[in-house]
Design brief:
Helix content: 40-55%
Largest sheet: 2 strands, antiparallel
Structural class: mainly alpha
Low-confidence stretches: 333-339, 347-352
Mean pLDDT: 90
Strand order of the largest sheet: 1-2
Shape: globular
Radius of gyration: 21 Å
Number of domains: 2
Number of strands: 2
Order of helices and strands: EHHHHHHHHHHHEHHHHH
């Protein structure tokens, strides 16, 4: 078993068996996505863990919420494309990170814009949703409330967004010289820790506001830290972000070493943000597939079970500058091959 390059001063990184599973998981998860995209009927994998539990896609931009953000928030032709409007819509959507919340607001108020939509009206819709017992926040991230003098959590988040707009943050972000600079601007605001500020920077970078390479910058979240601890018994003195970048650089060698024909995303390799997310997912996956590896969180169960959506996946849309077309992407499944399962995974599948 071979891991990424050695750490500082030649100290070797020591991968565990979970590191090989990391790459098999990435390949199988992407193959599942492509099978669903082409309309193949379920089940889309023989991996018992992936069939039973919910995992995000190998590429962050392929996930349901990211796809909705790109298609419905960022690039709808019937929505204003001025930088302030794009920023406002993006942050309003991502502060709650829930498609159903956004759609409920627009059903009641019409197309949301900074110039014409009163924040008080948005708050009233959210009050009504909560009064009906409906969740307005996604469970994907922990969304701490900034302390801005409001009673309700969502009103503090709306106040935070107004502060950003009054600070002319969209214009300042537009002039940022790097993705790291965007992250630092966001990090200064209350309630946004390092992980959320990084996620929002990536979301804004999908839009026309920014044009940075995703490979430029990465921040490791709590789930990724747990996954890294399971994949490496010794990190060679590297920081989590250095490890993620090394792993992203190592992907071709790792897939080749394991005999995996990675389906990819129309030639686009996994980016550091994708590898960061994959560490979060392997942290969960290993709780079942490699239960002896405790990581740093010590969690032993996967909470979210998989429930297949009754409708086929819509045609994907990615930032236009990526030059990824849905027709060519769907055709990639023809060369993706069969599921890539380790011996351990195959034995688990046969036992069920």
């Amino acid at each position: 078993m071979r891991g990424p390059d050695d750490g500082p001063h030649g100290k070797p990184m020591e991968p565990t068996e979970v590191y090989d599973t990391y790459w098999r998981f990435a390949a199988e998860r992407q193959s599942i996505y492509l099978r669903r995209l082409t309309g193949e009927p379920a089940p889309w994998t023989q991996d018992p863990v992936m069939r039973h539990y919910r995992f995000t896609n190998a590429y962050r931009a392929s996930d349901r919420v990211s796809q909705y953000l790109i298609r419905e928030i960022l690039y709808r032709e019937d929505r204003p494309q001025a930088p302030r409007e794009v920023f406002f819509r993006t942050m309003l959507f991502k502060l709650f990170n829930k498609i159903e919340t956004w759609e409920a607001v627009e059903r009641r108020l019409g197309p949301v814009t900074f110039e014409s939509t009163e924040v008080g009206a948005i708050s009233a819709v959210l009050d009504d949703l909560r009064g009906q017992g409906r969740a307005i926040y996604s469970a994907a991230y922990i969304m701490p409330a900034p302390r801005l003098g409001k009673v309700r959590k969502h009103d503090n988040h709306l106040a935070l967004l107004l502060r950003m707009m009054n600070d002319r943050l969209p214009e300042r972000i537009r002039q940022a010289g790097s993705l790291a600079a965007v992250y630092e601007m966001l990090l200064r605001y209350p309630g946004l820790g390092g992980f959320l500020a990084f996620q929002y920077a990536i979301d804004l970078n999908y839009s026309k506001l920014l044009d940075f390479e995703e490979s430029d910058f990465v921040i490791a979240g709590p789930g990724a830290l747990d996954g890294i601890a399971k994949c490496f018994s010794d990190t060679g003195g590297l920081s989590p972000e250095e490890i993620i970048n090394r792993v992203a650089d190592d992907q071709d060698r790792s897939f080749s070493r394991l005999g995996i024909a990675f389906p990819g995303l129309q030639g686009r390799p996994l980016q550091p943000i994708d590898c960061q997310n994959l560490f979060c997912e392997i942290s969960k996956y290993a709780r079942v597939a490699h239960p002896t590896y405790k990581g740093v969180a010590g969690r032993t169960k996967i909470k979210q079970s998989y429930k297949a959506h009754p409708l086929p996946l819509p045609s994907p849309m990615f930032p236009p500058r990526w030059r990824i077309g849905p027709t060519a992407l769907s055709g990639e499944y023809a060369t993706a091959g069969s599921a890539v399962l380790s011996d351990q995974m195959t034995q688990m599948a046969m036992a069920l």
